[in-house]
Amino acid sequence: MYTQGAMISSGEQHWAICGVTQRSRNVLDALEPQDGLYGVLSRGQDTSVEVMAPLRELLFARTQATELLDRIATASTHVVSLTVTEKAYRHDPISGRLNVDDAEIRADAAGRPPLTVVGQLVRGLQLRQQRGGEPVTVVCCDNLTHNGATLRQLVDDFAAMLPTVERAPLTTWIADSARFPSTMVDRIVPATTEADRADAGELLQFDDLGTVVAEPFSQWVVEDDFGTPRPAWERAGAIFTADVGPYETAKLRLVNGSQSALAYLGVLAGYEHVAQFMAVEGVATYLEAMMDDEAALTLPLPDGFDVAAYIGQLMERFANPGLRHRLAQIAMDGSQKLPPRLLATIRDRLLAGGPQPRLSMLAVAAWMRYVSARVDDSGRPVDVDDPLGAVFAARLAGASTPAAIVDRLVGIRVIFGDLGEDPQFRRLLTLALADLTKSGALACVRDAVT
C-alpha cells in the first residue's frame, strides 16, 4: 500500500514487487489469474476498497527456490522485505538467536534448496555476493523486538553454520553491503471471509479472490538506514526516524499486548470476535486499565507522543464493529507472542516495584488456561495452534492444579526466560489461574476492575 502511494505521489513508476508465499499456493492461485491485482477492503464507519497494483511477479518458495534466490541476487532488487509471522524465524524469542538445532535450519545450511525463511534469505544474499555484491536493504516488518537487529543476528547465526570457505566472504560482504533497518507496522488485518470477498466484488463490480481486509488506520515507522534506492514511502505517510524503538515498544505492549489479552480471555469466555467481546460489560474497562495503569508506565515514549490519545484511539479501533477480527486468529502462536507483548510489561513492572501488574498477569494466566484446559468456560473445545504445542502437552501431562500448571509452563525458558524463576511472578500467576479456573474469564475480568 505504501509502495503504491509512493509511486503515485512521486511519479516514480519503475518500482515493482515480487511477492513470495511460503507455505501454500493459495494466495498465488487467487492472484495469478488477476495479474497480481487485489483489493484492500477498508472497514470502519464506511466501507471502501482500493486496488493494489505494485505486485508484478509471484513466486511459491517451496517449488521455486531457484527463482527466489535469483530474485534476491538480482542487482535491480534493492529491498527485500519480510512479513512472515514470528514463528517463521525459527528463533529463541528470549535470546533473539537462531535455533541452530532446528532440523529444517540444519538442512538448509547443509546445502539443500532452502525451505526456511532465514535459509532462503541468506542463500539469496550469498548468491548476490557471488555475482558482484550490489548493496541491498533487508526490511523486517514482523512483530519482533528490534526486528532489524534481530534479523541481522539470525542471518549471522545462519552464516556461521556454513563452511569457512563460504562463511568468510559472505559475512564480510554482509557487514559492508547489507542494511537491516528496524520497522514498526500497525494495522489490524483480520482473515478474509467469503462475505468480505462479496462486499469487495460489489464495490469493484469484479470478483476479487485476493481481497485483503483492514481497518482504516495504518502506521508504518521505519529506521532511516538504507544503503540502496527505495520508494519514497514518506510521500505515502511512512514515518522515517533514527530510532524506531519507542514506537515499537508502544505498539507491542499497547496494541499487541491488548490484543493477546482480549484473545485468551475472550476465547475462554466463549466469544468469537474482538469487537463482540469489547462490547461486553467490563471488558473495555479492564483493557483500558491494563494499558493505562500497567503497560503505559513501562514505555520510553517518542517525543511528542500523546499516550492518552493513543490509548483512546486504540479503544475505538478494537471496538470497530466493521472488523470481524477472530480472537482465535490472534491467539495462535502464543509462545512466540507472549515475551514482547505481555511478559516484557510484567517484568518491568515487577522490577519497578509498586502496584502489582495484576491485569497483565490475568492475561498470561488466561493463556495458561487456554493451552492447558483446551476448552472454554462452557466446556467447548478450543484449538490450540502453537509451534510448541507438543512441548505443552508433554509438560502438562498429569498437571491438574493451577500450581502444577504454572510450575510446568513457567519452566519453558524460550517463553519465560529467568522470569519463570521469580517467586512473586509464580505466586501471582497461580492466584490468577486459580481464579480463572474457579470463576471463569468474564467474572475475573469484571472483578479485576471493581
Brief characterization of the structure:
The chain is mainly α and 450 residues long. Helix content is 49%, strand content 11%. Helix 9 (245-269) crosses helix 14 (334-352) and helix 17 (402-409) packs across helix 19.
Describe the structure.
With 450 residues, the chain is mainly α. The chain folds into two domains: 2-241, 3-Layer(aba) Sandwich (Rossmann fold), CATH 3.40.50; 245-448, N-(1-d-carboxylethyl)-l-norvaline Dehydrogenase, domain 2 (Orthogonal Bundle). Helix content is 49%, strand content 11%. The chain is built from 20 helices and eleven strands. It has a three-stranded mixed beta sheet with strand order 3-2-9, with helices on one face. α3 crosses α5 and α9 runs antiparallel to α11 (283-293).
What brief labels describe this structure?
20 helices; 3-stranded parallel β-sheet; 3-stranded mixed β-sheet; 11 strands; single chain; 450 residues; 49% helix; 2 domains; 11% strand; globular; mainly alpha; Rossmann fold; N-(1-d-carboxylethyl)-l-norvaline Dehydrogenase, domain 2
Strand content: 5-15%
Can you tell me the number of structural domains?
2
Could you tell me the radius of gyration in angstroms? 22 Å
The CATH architecture of the largest domain can be named as 3-Layer(aba) Sandwich
Give the helix level as a range of percent: 40-55%
- Residue windows where pLDDT falls under 50 for at least 5 positions: none
Number of helices: 20
The CATH first-level class of the largest domain comes to: Alpha Beta
Task: Specify the CATH homologous superfamily of the largest domain.
Answer: NAD(P)-binding Rossmann-like Domain
Mean pLDDT: 96
First and last CA, distance: 43 Å
Q: What best-fitting shape do the alpha-carbon axes yield? A: globular
Q: What class would the helix/strand composition place it in?
A: mainly alpha
How many strands appear in the DSSP assignment? Answer: 11
